[in-house]
Amino acid sequence: MTRERGRAGIITFKKTGEAMANLRNVILLGLAVACPASAADWKMSCPPQLATAQSVVGALPAGWAAVARTESAVTDTQPGATVGGPTPPISVSVFDGPPTEMADLVPDNPNARVVRWTFDKKRTRDVYVVCNYADTRMALAQKAPAEITSCTLANDQPGLICR
Prior knowledge:
By secondary structure, this protein is mainly beta. It is 11% helix and 39% strand.
């Protein structure tokens, strides 16, 4: 890395090829030490699709029509007709206890690129991970191993990693 004085007297640093390679190696080593992958990690990826069927039950009040919302369209439907099809996962939620109790946990850092949930080592309730899917109220839940103390989810990588 070389130091130069640019316009307006501002000192800038110019990176040479060797300096950049050294800097990259230091960053990668730091990431490997800070985020080691362990054989004990619990990795969970949502199933790539969930097929559901939803329908309006019973007669509709006068003047009302049922419509089905899908990824690409809104279509007319008749009472009793089922609308469904596979939809992709759109988000992951982490719950303190069974999802039916609705204790959806907010990540420690909700606006980060890599969100993290941390849990007390001496907790008395189970942690559940829920996959939420597009165009349906149905979701898939899975109980996490009792020994985990944290979970991370990156925006640009599939799956949740819990330790």
